[in-house]
C-alpha cells in the first residue's frame, strides 16, 4: 500500500486527486512502511527500530517540514498508537517555536526591558508591537492594538504590592478584577469564575487561566487571559502579571503561547529601584 499523509486534518492517499496541491503545505505528516514509494524522500533505509519518527525539510516545497511515521510491514494500529504521544510532543514543540518566532517578528523591545530593570524593579521582554498605555508607581500596562484582518487587542499589565504571603487562585482573580475595574476600559471586563485553570509554576508563581466577559450587556465581548502572581522575596513584594486577549473569530491558542513566553521572561530585580 502507498503511504498515507495527513493534511488539513484529514487523511489523504498520494494517489488521491488533489494530492499534488496538498503536498505543498508547510506541515505534512506521512505514515507508511519502509519501501513505500511515497516514503522514499523521507527514509533512505529502514530505521533500526520500528515504529520510528523521521523528519525532513523542503521535501515537496520550500519551507516545508514533513514528519514521517515509519511503521512495521504489518502496519498494525498498535504501532501507530504507540507513537501518538511522541508525535504530539514533537508537533507541540514545533508550533511553540513557530508562535515565538512570529511573536518577535517585529523585534524585541530590549530598551524597554533595560529601562524597566533599572527603574521599575523588574524586567520583561515584549515584542516591539506593544506600547506603554499606563504607568503609576505600582502599575504598568502595555498594549498591542491591530485592526488588520479584524479586531486584535493584546494587553500585558504588571502590578505590584507589598506582601510576603503567597496568594490562592481566588485572591489572584480578585486582584485581577480590581485591576481591570480601574484600568481596562476597552472593553470593561469581569473574570468568569467557572472557567478557571490553575497551575503552580516552578518559581513559586501561581498561574490562573480563564475567560473574561465585558460588563456592558449592550456591547458583549469576551476573550481569554493568563494571570500570574509572582513572589519577589528580595523586595518583599508580590507581582501580578495579567495578559488578556480580544480576538473575535480567531484561534486563541497561538496567542496564549505568546503570552506564556512573555510572562516567562519576567524577572524581578534584587532590590526595588
Précis, in short:
This protein is of the alpha+beta class. The protein is built from 6 helices and 15 strands.
Helix content bin: 10-25%
Averaged pLDDT: 86
Radius of gyration: 23 Å
Q: β content, as a range?
A: 25-35%
Number of helices: 6
Order of helices and strands: EEHEEEHHHEEEEHEEEEEHE
Number of strands: 15
First-last Cα distance: 68 Å
Outline type: elongated
Query: Segments where pLDDT lies below 50 for 5+ residues?
Result: none
Return the structural class: alpha+beta
Taking the sheet with the most strands, its summary is:
8 strands, antiparallel
Helix-strand layout with pairing:
Blueprint: E1 4-7, E2 10-12, H1 19-22, E3 27-32, E4 52-57, E5 65-70, H2 77-82, H3 84-103, H4 110-119, E6 122-123, E7 131-135, E8 139-146, E9 152-162, H5 169-183, E10 189-191, E11 197-200, E12 206-214, E13 222-232, E14 237-246, H6 253-264, E15 267-268
Parallel strand pairs: 3-5
Antiparallel strand pairs: 1-2, 1-3, 4-5, 6-15, 7-8, 8-9, 9-14, 10-12, 11-12, 12-13, 13-14
Keywords:
273 residues, single chain, alpha+beta, eight-stranded antiparallel beta sheet
Description:
- The chain has 273 residues and is α+β, with helices and mostly antiparallel strands.
- It contains 6 helices and 15 strands.
- It has helices spanning 19-22, 77-82, 84-103, 110-119, 169-183, 253-264; strands at residues 4-7, 10-12, 27-32, 52-57, 65-70, 122-123, 131-135, 139-146, 152-162, 189-191, 197-200, 206-214, 222-232, 237-246, 267-268.
- The strands form 3 sheets. Strands 7, 8, 9, 10, 11, 12, 13 and 14 form an 8-stranded antiparallel beta sheet that branches. Strands 2-1-3-5-4 form a 5-stranded mixed beta sheet, with no helix packed on it.
- α3 (84-103) crosses α6.
- The longest helix has 20 residues, at 84-103.
- The chain is elongated and about 65 Å long.
- The model has no long low-confidence stretch (mean pLDDT 86).
Amino acid at each position: 500500500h502507498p503511504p498515507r499523509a495527513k493534511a488539513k486534518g484529514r487523511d489523504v492517499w498520494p494517489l488521491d486527486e488533489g494530492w499534488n496541491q496538498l503536498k505543498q503545505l508547510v506541515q505534512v505528516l506521512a505514515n507508511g512502511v519502509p519501501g513505500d514509494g511515497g516514503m522514499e524522500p523521507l527514509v533512505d533505509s529502514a530505521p533500526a527500530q520500528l515504529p520510528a519518527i523521521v523528519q525532513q525539510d523542503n521535501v515537496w516545497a520550500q519551507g516545508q517540514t514533513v514528519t514521517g511515521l515509519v511503521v512495521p510491514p504489518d502496519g498494525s494500529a498498535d504501532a501507530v498508537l504507540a507513537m501518538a504521544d511522541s508525535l504530539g510532543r514533537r508537533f507541540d514543540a514545533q508550533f511553540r517555536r513557530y508562535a515565538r518566532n512570529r511573536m518577535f517578528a517585529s523585534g524585541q523591545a530590549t530598551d524597554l526591558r533595560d529601562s524597566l530593570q533599572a527603574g521599575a524593579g523588574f524586567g520583561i521582554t515584549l515584542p516591539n508591537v506593544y506600547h506603554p498605555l499606563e504607568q503609576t508607581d505600582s502599575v504598568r500596562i502595555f498594549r498591542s492594538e491591530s485592526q488588520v484582518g479584524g479586531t486584535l487587542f493584546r494587553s500585558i499589565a504588571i502590578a505590584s504590592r507589598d506582601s510576603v504571603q503567597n496568594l490562592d487562585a481566588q485572591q489572584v482573580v480578585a486582584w485581577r478584577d480590581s485591576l481591570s475595574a480601574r484600568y481596562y476600559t476597552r472593553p470593561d471586563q469581569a473574570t468568569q469564575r467557572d472557567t478557571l485553570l490553575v497551575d503552580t509554576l516552578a518559581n513559586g508563581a501561581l498561574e490562573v487561566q480563564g475567560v473574561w466577559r465585558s460588563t456592558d450587556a449592550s456591547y458583549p465581548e469576551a476573550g481569554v487571559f493568563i494571570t500570574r502572581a509572582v513572589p519577589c522575596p528580595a523586595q518583599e513584594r508580590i507581582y501580578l502579571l495579567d495578559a488578556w486577549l480580544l480576538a473575535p473569530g480567531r484561534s486563541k491558542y497561538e496567542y496564549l503561547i505568546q503570552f506564556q513566553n512573555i510572562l516567562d521572561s519576567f524577572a524581578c530585580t534584587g532590590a526595588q529601584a
